[in-house]
Amino acid sequence: MIAEIMAIGDELTSGQRLDTNTQWLSQQLEALGIEVLFHTTVGDDLEANIQVIKNALARANLVISTGGLGPTDDDLTRQALANATSTELKLDAESLEHIQRRFTMRGREMPPKNQIQAMFPVGSRIIPNPNGTAPGIDLDYSVGLHHSRFIALPGVPAEMKEMWATTVVPSLAGKGTAKKIIRHHVVKCFGVGESHMEALLPDLIKRGREPRVGITVHQATISLRITATGQTAQQCEEAIADTVQQIQAAVGDLVFGEGEQELQDVVIRDLLARGETLATVESSTSGMLAFWLGTVDTDRQAFLGGTIEMPVELVSQESVEKAAVQARSVGNATYGLALGTLTKADSADQYYVALASKDGVESISSGLAGHPEIWGPRMAKQGLDLLRKKLIG
Amino acid sequence: MIAEIMAIGDELTSGQRLDTNTQWLSQQLEALGIEVLFHTTVGDDLEANIQVIKNALARANLVISTGGLGPTDDDLTRQALANATSTELKLDAESLEHIQRRFTMRGREMPPKNQIQAMFPVGSRIIPNPNGTAPGIDLDYSVGLHHSRFIALPGVPAEMKEMWATTVVPSLAGKGTAKKIIRHHVVKCFGVGESHMEALLPDLIKRGREPRVGITVHQATISLRITATGQTAQQCEEAIADTVQQIQAAVGDLVFGEGEQELQDVVIRDLLARGETLATVESSTSGMLAFWLGTVDTDRQAFLGGTIEMPVELVSQESVEKAAVQARSVGNATYGLALGTLTKADSADQYYVALASKDGVESISSGLAGHPEIWGPRMAKQGLDLLRKKLIG
């Protein structure tokens, strides 16, 4: 079963509002074991709406739309759905009464415009909206052997979510559409580039593998996204555990965590577990390292604090190592971590990362490439990773 | 001219990640007067990618995609675009050299997989990517009288945005044929809550007003979003200028800036204009203030640096004032700004913000409410706002 999620409104296509309904519905459908392959957003144009609805009904088996069910002229979902499926709109007396009642409750008379919200394509089921005036629409549609179902919900998240949970989810379960269970798990890695990582995991990233493994990178952190499909949650989880084990066997300590974890989360966790502490000093990163660490450890039990240095004329491996040792002793911390960059007129720029501990000081350096937004996080993460590896021995 | 924006990746269709590129590109196209009517998101499936690209090329004149240009097997945009337009992929030697150079700069060898990133559909223009290994693709495609153009950009926002600004925008100049011109303008304010702000501007927020004014709040910064529609850009801009004037007359120096500006941007700008400098010291905010300031002033010409204090047992108005004076003198700066919080066992927690200058020291304090994520940014912004007001006299 292939699902498509549709969002309707000029405020979305013009970029004035960020659509979060679609992400939420994607997560909900995945949890029900229904694969989402398409998202579509369309502006308030009748012809365009008819076209995208026709497309969706042809390529998906389940289409969920949000928006376009209001009472004003730019709310076109009802009409577009009727046109796309060659049906007529018909007034539903009970829905009209519900809408009128909502106005009466607020001591107002229903504007004539709102009557349109009680009109439904012939043959559709009505999805009650306890929190608003726009009921939803649930319509089956078939062409030859291809069956699909269109569910139109309002765009107001609070209304949409309650209608989803109260009426749509039971109807999806009842119809037995969710035959498969889907589970996700994310393995977080640091230390190599995306293609290098893939080379280390040749058979895992292949399409068609079960569970599926996808690879994405954000600020030098690699996420391996495992998606398992099965008959039961337990089956999915076993398959995921097996894939995680294969990843660990292949890439070893490049794996640092899972889910939403970042390097600072695991570093602070490990420091706290050992009753150890850290002080930092950094130049060129505007305190990024301290900000990350401080945001995790708001009590400052492990991350004692950081210093952002005044601009330095000349940074060297030696000076960054010295800064790490100094941060450790001034902060009276178990570890001192220092970051610094050297801009050279005549050759490639460099950055240095140094870690001081009771065992002395170790450091690494690398070339700088691109924008500070790119190398800044990478440098800060190399520092955290150096400490992480020290902590796990 | 109709535009469509496309986002590619399982991590989006599965709901694991929220797509923000599409909104950003929509805003950019609107500003160019190009109407966006469709957004499409598709998972990492070759056949589905080919279909949505064909659809988009048929119904839009300009298609901008993000994602799917990485070096791994689940990056399908290049291949799907070639298939959808019945073209072949061909190696571009210059792009390959660029990619190899990026690896060399970081002291690594290019994995063979990355060669795919130098492959382009025959006839396409290459969009350089100074910050990453994935160049973009710019391909014209016509069927009969319908002409369209497909621009494929990487999904990494920092790379995508620079490529957009540097290469794509100049190539689109003069292509906007929207009948109506739309202009947006955002006025930024700080110092009161959202409902208070609305009460100060009663006639402006009204629905149906032209230009439209919307109000949103993020981390205590209020954005007043003005949307003007007209026949010419000049007409829109005049209407916006008139509304901006009305806002300024109503709320005075609560207005600090416009557009994407934050308090740190205007503070650094004003300091640089006056040839003055700032040093900071903060506790409880994990260096947030220094991080914000340092990100604006990467050269450190105005923001000399910050210190993140080790945890303090007892903060008082006096101690924070003293810290501001000390930051100023130690840093040899025109201004010293200090932030501190006091957690009390028996009464409401407090925070203190102090500003030291040649005129002495001034400070403000306020109660702490809720989560550090709420009061942290507010406290840091109160410090910046204190300095902003000092700078404008």
Automatic annotation (TrEMBL), chains A, B:
Residues 4-175 form the MoaB/Mog domain. It comes from the Bacteria. Pfam families: CinA_KH, MoCF_biosynth. Signal peptide: none annotated. InterPro entries: CinA (IPR050101), CinA-like_C (IPR036653), CinA_KH (IPR041424), Competence-induced_CinA (IPR008135), MoaB/Mog-like_dom_sf (IPR036425), MoaB/Mog_dom (IPR001453). Belongs to the CinA family. This is CinA-like protein. The gene is cinA.
